[in-house]
Amino acid sequence: SYVRGDALPRNRVDAAGNLLWDIQGGGLEAVASRQLLPNGQLSQGTLEGMRVRSGFIGNTLGLGVRSPLGYSTVTGYIQIWAFIESEARRKNRPNYSDVRQGYVKVEGWWGSVLVGRSRALFSRGATDIDVQYAHRYGLGYPGNIDLNGPTAGHIGFGVLGSGFSAGIAYATPSLHGLQLTVGVYDPIQLQGAWVRTKWVRPEAELTFERPIGQLGKFVLFGNGAYQTLYRQDAPMCADGTVDDSCESTYAAGFGYGGRLELGPMRLGVAGHYGRGLGTNYALEVSNATLDATGNLRNSDGYYVQTQLVLSKVDISAGWGITRVFLIPSDNILLPDPVDPVNGPGHYAHSVLKYQMGISAGAVYHLSKFLHLGFDFFHARAAWFLGERQNVNIANVGMTFTW
Length: 402
Description:
Structural class: mainly beta
Helix content: under 10%
Number of helices: 1
């Protein structure tokens, strides 16, 4: 994986070195080369580097057992991921295994119930598009360049990763292609202001899948999630009582989209909107998710992915954007550090405005089990006070499936 482009923008300071505002949310943060400017400050700098690493999907080992139970079937499954790169580029660091899934599933004519750790429902459809039509055999956006772990594919650029979570989910039987899955999951805290939860997180997804003769199929989906959050210390209410309801909030969102497979052509379209969602995965702890006092921001995303499936070659191209919207507290001016009375003042933070990504790739299938892949990703980020970052990523690698 080769990366070249702008470093993450630096916090803005005045001529005297006083902090004016900092950068909040988004962008690719990594070790960068910076130059000392005539004013004594460091430049934004540049990123350039290479790593040998796992891609969007790491080394995966899945083990399962299945047994009949009356007119139903019981399945036990565990899935373990591992990565080839070392943490922080130190070859003496151990590479720990990552248990992504571990569950029991009972299914029959009445539907299915899954208990354990598996993929969450919110944004599952959009993540499927990224995996199936773009980065199953690729890398995409690199994510944590200086650390280790899976890369991001198109996640953060129009796609919220569905992620994996402990929960209990029920799926109805498919009715002419229509299926509803509902679940409750381990609650997520938003570190900072909203660190307390009481109730599990409900999520749901409705899908509709139908074949198009012998030519292909189409899939439609809609999903959503909701999480109630509380302050760590219950506040005093106006009537003198102490009650959670005086200081609680919620994070919620919905996603939608579809996939079309027609002959060799593949097309996936997805979108999402919500409150307190973050940029990379649902209910992400991020400066883009909430301000310093805990006020949650709204965000949305849009993603289009195409793929052409030929005899032994798959060619893909995609585009996606994630946007963050300001809230009233973001527009409060602070006094000028040099002239607090007559100075122009400044904002406290430059919040992420959007992240846009353009991807392209090709996979050559040497056989059913050996795949050579090349992909390119252009990442662009902008902040509300004018900062910019542009990064290009080129990746090449091999995947063995069995």
